[in-house]
Amino acid sequence: MENRFARSEYVVWNMVDEEAVLLNPETGLYYGLNRTAAEVWQALVVPKTTEQLVAHIASVFEAPSDAVGADVEALLVDLKAKKLVTVLAD
Fold first, then answer.
1. pLDDT reading at 1 higher than 70
2. Domains contained in the chain, number
3. Which of 84, 82, 76, 36 is nearest to 57 (CA)?
4. Is position 90 within any domain?
5. Which of 11, 12, 34, 61 maximizes the CB count within 10 A of its CB?
6. What is the pTM of this model?
7. Whole domain around residue 16: which residue ranges?
8. CA distance readout (Å), 53 to 29, 42, 56, 90
9. What span, in angstroms and rounded, lies between the C-alpha atoms of 79 and 1?
10. Bridge partner residues of 6 (DSSP)
């Protein structure tokens, strides 16, 4: 089964207009998410697979899945590297 991504429980965040601002209290660094990335973040209210997130973004922005897939994957890699999301193995 595919891994699921979840928000790291200690991350503090807030929406500002259509963008999200995240704070990793371990590093003290803020991280800004544009509208599309903020939509991914909001979708992670419950853990989701990459495939589920790609389908969600494709639906919300009325774009083909293959057009958003690489961007969603790159975002998840970046968020994981910054310890803003965790990977839940099934």
1. no
2. 1
3. 36
4. no
5. 11
6. 0.93
7. 4-83
8. 25, 10, 5, 17
9. 21
10. 86
Alpha-carbon span 44 to 89, nearest angstrom: 15
DSSP the chain: ---EEEE-TT-EEEEETTEEEEEETTTTEEEEE-HHHHHHHHHTTS-EEHHHHHHHHHHHTT--HHHHHHHHHHHHHHHHHTTSEEEE--
Whether 14 maps to a domain, the answer reads yes
Instruction: In whole angstroms, give the CA distance from residue 66 to residue 30.
Output: 30
Q: Which residues sit opposite 21 in a β-bridge?
A: 14, 32
Residue at 88 is within a domain:
no
Rounded CA separation 1/68 (Å): 22
What is the residue type of 89? A
89 found inside a domain = no
